[in-house]
Amino acid sequence: MLTDQNVGLFITGGIASYKMAELARLLIKQGANVRVVMSRSATEFITPMTLQILTKNEVLTDTFEERHPEFVQHVEMAQWADIAIVAPATANVIGKIANGIADEIVSTTLLAHDKPLIIAPAMNDRMLSNPATKRNLALLEEDGHTIIEPDTGFLAEGYEARGRLPELTRIVDVVIKRHVQKGLRQLLHGKKVVVTAGGTVERIDPVRYISNDSSGKMGYALARAAEWYGGDVHLISTKKSMVAPEGVTVEYVESAREMQEAVERQYDDAQFVVMAAAVSDYRVKNKADQKIKKSGDSSDLVIDLEENPDILAGLGAKKKHQTLIGFAAETENLIENAMSKIKRKNADWIIANDVSKDGSGFNVDTNEVTIISSDKSVYQLPEMTKLDAALSIWQTVLEAEDRS
Ligand code: C5P
After folding, report:
1. Closest atom, ligand 1, to C-alpha of 308
2. pLDDT tens, position by position, 278-313
3. Sign of CA dihedral 50, 55, 57, 58
4. What is the CATH number of the domain that holds 226?
5. In angstroms, what is the span from residue 200 Cα to ligand 1's centroid?
6. 327 CA distance to ligand 1 centroid (A)?
7. What is the pLDDT of residue 355?
8. Among this protein's residues, is 99 annotated catalytic?
9. Is the pLDDT score of 361 beyond 70?
10. In a designed cystine with 326, which of 39, 96, 347, 365 is the match (CB 3.0 to 4.6 A)?
């Protein structure tokens, strides 16, 4: 997602500096060109050589070590970076950036950088809650920089508190969002978007259930992309183990009926509802309150199933201002089946995918979807990652709605 983006990684001296080798690798894996600037104290925790080898670029550690007479290196670096990340950001560098101080290579280069910074503070909890640090962080936010909230967890001091560097994937997500958002009209700004994701879980007894192969990845990608388009996104998910997308509110449910209740609570003030969840068509009729034991007399166990409500059709029946987007996993007659689903459920769009194809549907990272509207427009997309498919789905839907 960061192909050919120039990312400047500014490392200052905290124990989390050692994680920056991995952050550089993750950014490079996303296609970014990475160049590193380190404060002198950061070099006490990780060597410039490590970052030079990983990034294949020289690492700046000293303002006056000018290796290229044809330009001033910190000014050149500041202008080269499309995106600048300060991680880990110490209380010291936060204070310097907030107050325009430039007295070593990191702060001097950042003063010459003219775009908003991404700052990931990481420090001891007492330093973080010091009024001076809080004041400086507030100043940075006022100036339009993005502060990634530190995690609460096990600190180097040996106790649990707020101040840990967030998971590196969260930092990468913020960088990707910054890059992708540059090219997106904020067509969902001020709009509430409800997305459902994952297969519903229908309990047989407290330890057993019926579900399906849905990974939730498509729903999560749609929620993430909707947030990038500026939406106020509420994700209703059955997947507790998946990392919540940055900036998205997540509500966890299990069964189809819980999902229905959760969606309906959000429905009145929602502008878009995306039913990406694979809702079980049936649930267990007589769910056991205790674990079912083997009978011991070799007789069969029979589980009776009863039909679940069709959530999408229910929403369609009482639709007012909302745009309803459903999914259709098909193995044949993709378009005809999707069209009839639009009618039957009073949906506005159906995203159809042929689940019999290798790179499409359940449990894979890619999808090949066809987007079908209630006015019978058909947009066929090639196979792509679920995140790219999600961006294309929103682009198609939002541009069509914008035209009408
Ligand atoms: O009818 P079918 O299951 O193929 O429809 C798929 C679409 O309907 C999906 O968007 C799915 O989330 C939604 N659905 C629902 N409630 C059900 C079954 C499916 O909302 N009980």
Report:
1. 21
2. 999 999 998 999 999 988 887 888 999 999 999 999
3. negative
4. 3.40.50.10300
5. 11
6. 7
7. 79
8. no
9. no
10. 347
Cα 341 to averaged position of ligand 1 atoms, centre (Å): 9
| 280 alpha carbon – ligand 1 mean position (Å) | 8
Give the chain's mean pLDDT: 94
Q: Which residues line ligand 1 (CB under 6 A)?
A: 256, 275, 277, 279, 281, 308, 310-312, 326-328, 341
pLDDT score recorded for residue 69: 87
Residue listed under structure tokens 């039957």: 344
- Total domain count, the chain: 2
Asked if residue 358 has pLDDT above 80, the reply is: no
| Atom number in ligand 1 closest to CA 326 | 10
Q: Would 1 be classed as within a structural domain?
A: no
Query: Helices in 129-188 by DSSP H: which ranges?
Result: 131-142, 168-182
**For residues 78-98, average pLDDT:** 98
Q: Are residues 173 and 196 in the same domain?
A: no
Residue 61: half-sphere exposure toward Cβ, Cα within 13 Å: 15
Pick the closest to residue 369 from 316, 313, 330 (CA basis).
Answer: 330
User: 359: pLDDT confidence band, cut at 50, 70 and 90?
Assistant: low
Residue 186 lies in a domain: no
Instruction: Give the H or E element holding residue 284.
Output: strand 282-284
- Write down the catalytic residue from 6, 124, 130, 212: 212
| Best of 210, 308, 327 for a ligand 1 pocket test (most atoms within 8 Å of beta carbon) | 327
**Closest to 192 in 3D by CA, of 129, 137, 133, 269:** 269
- Domain of 141, in residue numbers: 6-181
Q: Does pLDDT of 365 surpass 90?
A: no
